[in-house]
Amino acid sequence: MGNGLPPLIERAVEAATRAPSAYNTQPWRFLIDGDRIDVVLDRARVLGVADPDAREARLSCGAAVFNLCVSLRANGRRAPVRLLPDRLQPDLLAAITIEGEHEPSAADHALGKAVPRRHTNRRPFFERAVPAHARRELDKAAAASGARLALIEASARYDAIAVLTRRAEHIQATDERFQAETEYWTGRPAGHTDGVPAHAAGPPPDPDGALRLRPFRGGETLPARPYEQQPLLAALLTTAPGPRAEIQAGMALQHVLLTATTLGLAASFLSQPLEVPATCRAVADLFRAEGTVHALLRIGYGHPAAPIPRRPVAEVVTVRDNTRR
Ligand SMILES: Cc1cc2nc3c(=O)[nH]c(=O)nc-3n(C[C@H](O)[C@H](O)[C@H](O)COP(=O)(O)O)c2cc1C
User: Fold this and answer.
1) What pLDDT score does 323 carry?
2) Which of the listed residues 104, 110, 138, 292 has the most CB atoms within 10 Å of its CB?
3) pLDDT tens digit string along 153-163?
């Protein structure tokens, strides 16, 4: 394996790096100390313009924590997690301890297999409804990881989200600092291990579509194709706000996305309205009675896209040297 890590830990960290993150920034580091893996927020990889409070970065790290645990459980180990274990180190987001044996369930195996297959799909989906049994599975996944998934069908709330998404996108399109950040992280040629490659972009967004997906560099040269008319939308919620809830929501987000993968469903994000303060407050108002919204997803069926690269394990891991203690 080359970096001296036990194979179990190397596999778990590799799985963690497969988590989604805004613009594939991969804002995480993993500190290994014997059987303990600490997940630490990497401030140097937080998007200064789109994510000044590191909210999206904590969601991404929560997703990485979930993948770590999925890998450990699928490989027959218990892996309890403590969130924010040290109040003096707020960027130490989670500590995972590898404990005794665990008999992997069919669900553990299915989630483990979904980790390398899950990816964000920005292309048009088919006009095919998500059936009730799949919706129930997605609901259950969010609930099992301490969050709630609100599925949003055609309704006044759906229309309000579509309007806020367009408003946010317009604000971001005229913000030079935001555009420079997007330019830096997207449309990357082959060979990069972070950022979004040009091939992961979808075709130009449909000007008449109900929902406006964020255009990514690389997509503008693709022939236009119609997007589905009214994709299923999902809002991921927790009862409380704050950093702990953001990490928890990231874990639930990944549980939902991996479950979607096992069901043959594709997903992409609609983060624009949550990144602009004015539209974010308006989205919060739409869900005021239900809790705090952490992510908005578009879910449906589509041709799979290709997974995109990650930094190698050796670049994201620090092994604590206990010999000097
Ligand atoms: C908090 C968060 C916000 C995201 N927002 C968007 C978004 O607005 N539009 C989009 O196309 N992808 C979005 N993504 C998806 C990332 O771009 C994607 O996870 C990353 O490029 C890695 O690719 P993968 O998910 O295919 O592995 C978001 C991901 C996270 C975790």
Assistant:
1) 55
2) 138
3) 989 999 999 99
Residue 325: predicted pLDDT: 45
Which run of H or of E encompasses 71? helix 55-74
Nearest to 158 by CA among 300, 301, 298, 302: 298
Please count the other Cβ atoms lying within 10 Å of the Cβ belonging to residue 319. 14
Pocket of ligand 1 (CB under 6 A): 20-24, 56, 59-60, 119-120, 122, 196, 214, 268-271, 295, 307-308
What CATH code is assigned to 132-300? 3.40.109.10
Query: 257 exposed, middle or buried (CB, 10 Å; 0-12, 13-18, 19+)?
Result: buried
Query: What is the residue with the minimal CA distance to atom 17 of ligand 1?
Result: 23
CATH number of 7-117+316-324: 3.40.109.10
Burial zone of 226 (CB within 10 Å; 0-12 exposed, 13-18 middle, 19+ buried): exposed
Pairwise CA distance, residues 3 & 319, whole Å:
10
Q: What is the pLDDT of residues 44-102, one digit of tens each?
A: 999 999 999 999 999 999 999 999 999 999 999 999 999 999 999 999 999 999 998 99
Burial 7-27 (b: 16+ CB within 10 A, else e): eebbbbbbbbbbbbbbbbbbb
Residue 182 CB partners (closer than 8 Å, separation 6+): 23, 172, 217
Closest listed residue to residue 237, CA positions, set 193, 289, 191, 186: 289
Distance 19 CA to ligand 1 centre (A): 9
Ranges of residues in the chain with a pLDDT under 50 are 1, 324-325
Place of tokens 């964000």: 120
pLDDT reported for residue 23: 97
- Asked whether this chain's domains 7-117+316-324 and 132-300 adopt the same fold, the reply is yes
Please answer whether residues 76 and 17 qualify as being in contact, where contact means their C-beta atoms are separated by less than 8 angstroms: no
The structural domains of the chain, with segments of one domain joined by +, span: 7-117+316-324, 132-300
Instruction: Name the burial class of residue 234, with classes exposed (0-12), middle (13-18) and buried (19+) by CB atoms within 10 angstroms of its CB.
Output: buried
Give, using CA atoms, the residue closest to atom 3 of ligand 1. Answer: 22
